Amino acid sequence: MNAEETLAQIAQEVSVCTNCTLHHSRKKSVPGEGPASSEIMLIGEGPGFYENEQGRPFVGSSGKFLTELLAQAGLKRSDVWIGNVVKCRPPNNRDPQPDELAACGEYLERQIAAIDPKIIITLGRFSMAKFVPGVKISQVHGQMRRVGNRFVIPMFHPAAALHQPRYRPQILADFAKLPQQLAQARAALAQFPDTVTTNEPPEEPEQLSLF
Ligand code: URA
Ligand code: SF4
User: Fold this and answer.
1) CA 13 to ligand 2: nearest atom
2) Which atom of ligand 2 is nearest to the CA of 18?
3) What are 34-50's pLDDT values in tens digits?
């Protein structure tokens, strides 16, 4: 199966999944969308009201703002893959629970493996916790770090910036840095495609400390 077929297969499995209680409140599952060849994956939290109606990620007010944020980086929605850590809407938009995050995690892992992006942008704390645990978003937002064979940039959730205007200039500035970060990620992955697992000279960490 190629990446596109794998993503379609996952979307099919998600649509009939009963692995956690969120399937009870599901109208349409939201597997995520975008090109299988995307260099950038954006991972949010979970579907809200409109996403549950339409089966597409980030189509409500957060999504409108996300489209603006991508424009800051010179990107269109169709240039990136957009998804969530849970694929079915939590009732009343409550936080996803640990058992739900664990149950749904396998789909996201398979999506990441199929797409093999250079950069994962986490939107919100549940997404960030999957890739960069134990940090505070206020201290690390907009900073790119290598995690295995790709890079992760934790960003504020667009909904946070909609609700708290003081985050707005920060999230806009963070997205404006993205083209430069993508260039850095491409260069670093071309030079050091695989994670260094041996105790060889620390070339890679020195290079990456520039970021
Ligand atoms: N918020 C999210 O985290 N994901 C969506 O798909 C929509 C809003
Ligand atoms: Fe399955 Fe994920 Fe939906 Fe839970 S949220 S029912 S694990 S697809």
Assistant:
1) 8
2) 6
3) 999 999 999 999 999 99
Contacts of 210 (CB under 8 A, 6+ apart): none
Q: Per residue in 79-128, pLDDT tens?
A: 999 999 999 999 999 999 999 999 999 999 999 999 999 999 999 999 99
pTM for this one?
0.92
Structural contact between residues 108 and 129, judged by C-beta atoms closer than 8 angstroms: no
Ligand 1 pocket by C-beta < 6 Å: which residues?
30, 44-48, 51, 57-58, 62, 84, 124, 159
Query: Can you read off the two tokens belonging to residue 86?
Result: 């849970």
Distance CA 59, CA 55 (A): 9
Residue type, 166: R
Complete domains list, the chain, with CATH? 9-191 (3.40.470.10)
197 vs 29, 192, 201, 209, CA distance in Å? 38, 12, 11, 18
Atom of ligand 1 nearest to the CA of 127: 3
Ligand 1: centre distance to CA 150 (Å): 23
DSSP secondary structure letters along 82-97: EEESSSSPPGGGPPPP
